[in-house]
Amino acid sequence: MSAFIHQEVVFKASPNRIYTALMNSKEHGDFTGGPLNSAPKRVVNFPVTTDKL
Prior knowledge:
By secondary structure, this protein is an all-alpha fold. The protein contains two helices and no strands.
């Protein structure tokens, strides 16, 4: 049996602001409560539905 988790979160911020918060070490820690463990990359492979941001 497979288990799937689906979660949607609505942020009152632009996609660029969210991207910056996730890719900047300090902002990432403030946003998630944990350290950033990877170098910033320009290619992001996760779906973003901008009409919900």
